[in-house]
Amino acid sequence: MSVQSVEVELLAIGAGPSNLGLAVALEELAPELAANSLLIDRNSTIAWQQGMLMPWATSQVSFLKDLVTQRDPTSRFSFLNHLFETGRMDEFVNMSTFTPYRVEFTEYLRWVAGSLEKVRIELGKQVVSMRARRDEAGVVTGWVTTLADGSTITSRYLVYGGSREANIPPALADLPPNRVVHSTQYRQRVAELSGEMPYRVAVVGSSQSAAEIFRALRDDLPDSDVAWLMRSIGLSSDQSSKFTNELYYPAFVDEFYDSRPEAREQILREMHRTNYSVVTPPMLEHLYNDLYLDRFNNRNERRLITMVDITSARETGDELVLELTDRRTGTVTELHRDVVFLGTGFDVRMPRLVRELASDLELDRIDVTREYQLELGVPSSAACYLQGVNEQTHGISDTLLSVLAQRAEEICRDIIAHRERIPAAAVSGHEVAGL
Question: Which SS3 state, helix, strand or coil, does residue 338 take?
Fold first, then answer.
């Protein structure tokens, strides 16, 4: 079978909220470009935080931070219009909430994808590499994206909107993947286990995702022994307030980007506990109430083990043996488990595909402009953009929904300006950036 090669003007990798927001912006602001744009994703279906789609889980941000409302409240792609078109407006209004269920927001994303008229979406496309395409003079004229089946997609514009890699604690990295399950795979993997079996389970981490897994296991594996392991002294509430939430405004991106490096570090450090290694107050209340009733009923199948490090782990026979070191006393104990679920977040580095692209471009470091364009450092008639991975330069909101709609417009308008400045017909004449 011959290897297929497709050419488009714009390729967006990842069909999550970031690139769906971009697709909407393209259709509304650059319909000609939208008609020659392709959005791909490795998954077979569009879902938001697919591994954590518990039926009771809600978004932690307002529905007004959808794909478009903060950019254009009148857009037909808004969450409110989705409710109207699907006949659920009255019921949602009656809920008196700003935070929809996660499964409901996923349905909204699928509705948006199905409502696009120009941008094509193809699912089940696993990207294995992104490389620069150069002409005889060494000018970067586009990008070659290779898929797992060997086919390629060439494009003048490339937008990476995929997520970071899962963070696996080093002590657990060599254990079989069927026994160590990251939160991104929780729903898929727990469904493979029998809810009637008394598994011995460990949950690792002190974040919202770890808390949601701990809560979900009560229903998913009700007869199991669940030990929740964390390095901290206990669970902490997120430290957000209306004052700190202003640092999640799209308008704050300019201020953060223009700040000195040391100021950026201070802001990220002080804002860390508004988003990382913390649990929302409602979830803390729910968890504590459950544990209170467990103690009242003399049940100890579910417990928190705090201030411990997992210093080593091994598979022995049909079980996992975790070596735990108490951070207070240095005492070492062993915990025997059947499966470990991780709420340990994501690798803070740029995603592997982006790092490998930077290596192909011979970049010493990965920098982006204010408009999220990768700085190539060489003459080019093409452009590459990074979405959702620029926290160090654009602020803590970059990985969240908070700035998504405005960011999509900024990228879209930057591409429009680039196309006007360097028309495709001028590429062969080397009227390109840097020349």
Answer: coil
Asked whether residue 258 is assigned to any structural domain, the reply reads no
Q: Do residues 291 and 211 make contact, with C-beta atoms less than 8 angstroms apart? A: no
**For residues 43 and 90, what is the distance between their CA atoms, to the nearest angstrom?**
33
Domain count, the chain: 2
> Which of these, 51, 49, 47, 37, lies nearest to 15 by C-alpha position?
47
List pLDDT tens digits, range 147-190: 999 999 999 999 999 989 999 999 999 999 999 999 999 999 99
Compute the distance between CA of residue 99 and CA of residue 105 in angstroms, rounded to an integer: 9
Gap between the Cα atoms of 133 and 140, Å rounded: 6
Residues 202 and 327 in one domain: yes
Cβ–Cβ under 8 Å, residues 339 and 181: yes
Long-range contacts of 219-224 (CB under 8 A, 24+ apart): 220/190, 220/193, 220/195, 221/190, 221/193, 221/195, 221/197, 222/195, 223/195, 223/196, 223/197, 223/198, 223/301, 224/197, 224/198, 224/199, 224/200, 224/301
Q: By residue range, what is the domain housing residue 316?
A: 170-238+276-342
Q: Which residues contact 303 (CB under 8 A, 6 or more apart)?
A: 226, 227, 228
Would you say the pTM of this structure is higher than 0.90? yes
What radius of gyration, in Å, describes the C-alpha atoms of the chain? 23
38: domain CATH number? Answer: 3.50.50.60
Q: State whether 66 and 137 are in the same domain.
A: yes
Count Cβ neighbours within 10 Å for each residue of 6-43 and write b for 16 or more, e otherwise: eebbbbbbbbbbbbbbbbbbbbbbbeebbebbbbbbee
C-alpha–C-alpha distance, residues 359 and 365, integer Å:
9
Per-residue pLDDT reduced to its tens digit, 329-379: 999 999 999 999 999 999 999 999 999 999 999 999 999 999 999 999 889
Tokens, residue 48: 């938001």
The verdict on 150 and 22 lying in the same domain is yes
Domain boundary among 312, 342, 372: 342
Does an H or E element contain 182, and which? strand 180-182
For tokens 């470009």, the residue is 33
In 238-381, alpha helices (H)? 242-245, 252-257, 261-271, 281-296, 352-360
Does residue 397 sit in helix, strand or coil? helix
Structure tokens at 132: 């620069």
Q: Stretch 68-95: mean pLDDT, rounded? A: 97
What token pair was written down for 402?
């908070």
Q: Do 316 and 179 belong together in one domain?
A: yes
Q: Contact at 8 Å (CB) between 259 and 267?
A: yes
